[in-house]
UniProtKB/TrEMBL annotation:
It is found in: Membrane. PANTHER family: OS01G0750400 PROTEIN, RECEPTOR-LIKE PROTEIN 51-RELATED. It is a single-pass membrane protein. It holds the Pfam family LRR_1. Belongs to the RLP family. Its main location: membrane. Residues 342-386 are annotated as: Disordered. This is Receptor like protein 51, suppressor of npr1-1, constitutive 2.
């Protein structure tokens, strides 16, 4: 199979000559080896310009990365993006690229073909973003050595996620998002997963308890699916979790208390579900929390947070929970939380605060929220405080005008009479 050394040497010279003539003439790169000619040919068939040796003159955006083997270097990473419309993948080209560990497509609307098994097995990272038109679970399932799988904005037709993930025993990070994926979440996942993003698909059913066994999981994004049922009570077992999004599903029940056992939470998004129960106080004890989104649920009761906690966060959203309210002796209406203040029974005072001026003791405590910061908000606060006074002033002016008019009319009638 191997060509005789002399032949190899000639080829080597030819390629380095080709490479050095087109590159800057002064470059004395002849000592470093060049890319395998078969791979140069493969790159050409993929419309990647090879006038300059891609190992010596790295292409922009790191599209190619080579190893240092001799006599020829081999590609270990290839990133194809913005491919021309006429690009088609050829089996022979792909076969000569089986040295690749990492392969990615971005905006390459070419047709997928069955990959040679050498290449399928050598890949540890595969990404397909807005590319390859349409994939199937079986097609993806052949990449059994992947640690990283990303498919995004590309439809994936499969009877279930287990078809894809079932044999990828080394997988650490998986993103299959915006892919119109159907079926339910797999009952079994590989223990070593650190990132799972299955957002914006059509996944149905509930979140299996087995998800809570993923001790190394740092990011879980199941947002924008059709998941229902409750958040498993064992969720707190995900002790490595940092980012969690379960937003825009149909999850119900309450937010499990066990989540308080996850110390490193940074980003929690449970918005747009049907979660009920109260807002747990433990969120304010999570030191690293930056984003807390609980809006558009059915949470009720008194919001258990103070202003210093809310100000510490980058994003805090609780609006759209009609039975949730805030304690106006703890939080100011200036914070614009999108929820009503509580009455003394911990129920929302029905209409927004400023209209409720006829109220008894409540309006007194409303004026008790004197946070004296941020100048730009004070105008609104003043407006609100002057609300009732304006009414009084209006009534006073109206009344005095009427009195004046009556007096004037009386005087007028006397003068005329
Ligand atoms: C290209 O790769 C090098 C080394 O791996 C890295 O330092 C650099 O940031 C990468 N550049 C781009 C644009 O990704
Ligand atoms: C691909 O095209 C997009 C916009 O059309 C551009 O922003 C991006 O930099 C391009 N990527 C490469 C690797 O050329
Ligand atoms: C990939 O997996 C196959 C079969 O599971 C194994 O035989 C092979 O050695 C692996 N290849 C690499 C490059 O790890
Ligand atoms: C998913 O399906 C919807 C409607 O069926 C379609 O509009 C959308 O383009 C599909 N998404 C992808 C990534 O194919
Ligand atoms: C998905 O694959 C099945 C079986 O191969 C086929 O019957 C079905 O039409 C495919 N669905 C789409 C949307 O392509
Ligand atoms: C998972 O990680 C542990 C420790 O990091 C390691 O010992 C084990 O081999 C890994 N399992 C797999 C299937 O990669
Ligand atoms: C989850 O995915 C959605 C859509 O892909 C994205 O907008 C959001 O930022 C992600 N959230 C987290 C916490 O990663
Ligand atoms: C919360 O929702 C669950 C399931 O929908 C229901 O069984 C429970 O009674 C509700 N609890 C409250 C306090 O509304
Ligand atoms: C996790 O959330 C933080 C804060 O919102 C964000 O900056 C970061 O990019 C997220 N990480 C991932 C992997 O989504
Ligand atoms: C606000 O709440 C946090 C957590 O519950 C607490 O540690 C802190 O002392 C409170 N701050 C004030 C000003 O009450
Ligand atoms: C509001 O907070 C005050 C002071 O902390 C407390 O006395 C009162 O009971 C709280 N009201 C409600 C409805 O929780």
């Amino acid at each position: 199979m191997k060509p005789p050394p002399f032949f190899l040497f000639l080829l080597y010279l030819a390629v380095s000559a080709a490479a050095t003539t087109t590159a800057t003439p002064s470059s004395s790169s002849s000592s470093s080896s060049t890319l395998d000619p078969k791979q140069i040919q493969a790159l050409e068939s993929l419309n990647i310009p090879t006038a300059r040796d891609p190992c010596i003159q790295p292409s922009p955006h790191n599209a190619t990365v080579c190893d240092n083997s001799k006599p020829f270097r081999h590609l270990v990473s290839l990133h194809l993006s913005n491919c021309s419309a006429d690009l088609s993948l050829s089996f022979t080209a792909l076969k000569s690229l089986s040295s690749l560990h990492s392969l990615s497509f971005t905006n390459c609307h070419t047709y997928p073909i069955r990959f040679p098994s050498d290449l399928s097995l050598s890949l540890t990272s595969f990404a397909c973003i807005r590319s390859l038109r349409r994939l199937t679970g079986v097609w993806l399932s052949r990449f059994v050595n992947l640690t990283d799988l990303t498919v995004s904005f590309t439809p994936v037709n499969t009877t279930g996620l287990y078809v894809i993930l079932g044999n990828m025993h080394k997988l650490k990070k998986v993103t299959i998002s915006h892919a119109n994926l159907t079926g339910s979440l797999p009952r079994h996942l590989h223990q070593n997963l650190t990132h799972v993003d299955l957002s914006d698909n059509k996944l149905k059913g509930n979140i299996p308890t087995s998800f809570t066994l993923l001790e190394d999981l740092e990011c879980l994004n199941l947002s924008s699916n059709e998941l229902n049922g409750v958040i498993p009570t064992e969720f707190g077992d995900l002790t490595s979790l940092k980012n969690l999004s379960l937003s825009s599903n149909s999850l119900s029940g309450s937010i499990p208390d066990s989540i308080s056992a996850i110390p490193g939470l940074v980003h929690v998004d449970l918005s747009n579900n049907q979660l009920n129960g109260t807002v747990p106080r433990f969120f304010s004890e999570l030191k690293g929390l930056k984003v807390l989104k609980l809006e558009n649920n059915e949470l009720h009761g008194v919001l258990p947070f103070n202003a210093s906690f809310i100000k510490r966060l980058d994003v805090f959203k609780v609006g759209g929970n009609s039975n949730l309210c805030y304690n106006h002796s703890v939080l100011s209406s200036k914070m614009k939380l999108g929820v009503a203040p509580c009455d003394k029974h911990g129920m929302p005072m029905s209409p927004p605060p400023s209209k409720d001026s006829s109220g008894d003791g409540d309006s007194d405590s409303d004026s008790a929220d004197y946070d004296d910061d941020s100048a730009d908000d004070t105008s609104e606060k003043k407006e609100q405080h002057h609300g009732p006074n304006k009414v009084v002033l209006g009534v006073a002016i109206g009344l005095s005008s009427i009195v004046f008019l009556i007096v004037f009319l009386i005087l007028l009638s006397k003068w005329c009479g």
